[in-house]
Amino acid sequence: KQHVFTTAQETYARNLLGKLDPDGTVFESVSHRDMYPHAVKEGKDLALVTDRLDRAILFDDRLDNFDPQIGKNGVLVAKYVDVGKNDVLELLEMCRLVCIAALAHLCPDARNVVKFFWSDGHKERFSVKKTM
């Protein structure tokens, strides 16, 4: 089973997951902003919600949210703006993210997959010197 960690409020997270997993069979647990209010201030620290960072991926549209794990678990996503203006681009982005998650699921350490999808900004912010 999968786990969800979101900095959205509980009501929003529950409403969204009600659509994604109406039977409650996909996601084992949900952690949200109301449970970890301090988690948002200095990036999204996955260590607050799991001790298995080798199995965790953070999809986010802000690089600074990857700071706590020095970018190792982060995949930068396109900003969700102008909804409906270009359905093809939105579909391509969703396909990219699903493929990354599927590849990571097959790999013993998800971070070994994530590193292949670092953006240029990601590489600049989390240089090799900082991650060692």
Q: What does this protein structure show overall?
A:
The protein is built from five helices and four strands. The strands form two sheets. The chain has a two-stranded parallel sheet with strand order 1-2. The protein has a two-stranded parallel ribbon with strand order 3-4. It has helices spanning 10-20, 87-106, 111-114, 120-125, 128-131, and strands at 2-5, 27-31, 58-60, 74-76. β1, α1 and β2 form a beta-alpha-beta unit. The mean pLDDT is 85. It is globular. The N and C termini lie far apart (31 Å). With 132 residues, it is of the alpha/beta class.
Low-confidence stretches: none
- Total helices: the number is 5
Instruction: Evaluate the radius of gyration.
Output: 15 Å
Distance between the termini: 31 Å
What features would you highlight for this structure?
single chain; 132 residues; alpha/beta; two-stranded parallel sheet; two-stranded parallel ribbon; 5 helices; 4 strands; 34% helix
SSE inventory with pairings:
Blueprint: E1 2-5, H1 10-20, E2 27-31, E3 58-60, E4 74-76, H2 87-106, H3 111-114, H4 120-125, H5 128-131
Parallel strand pairs: 1-2, 3-4
Short description:
The protein has 132 residues and is an alpha/beta fold.
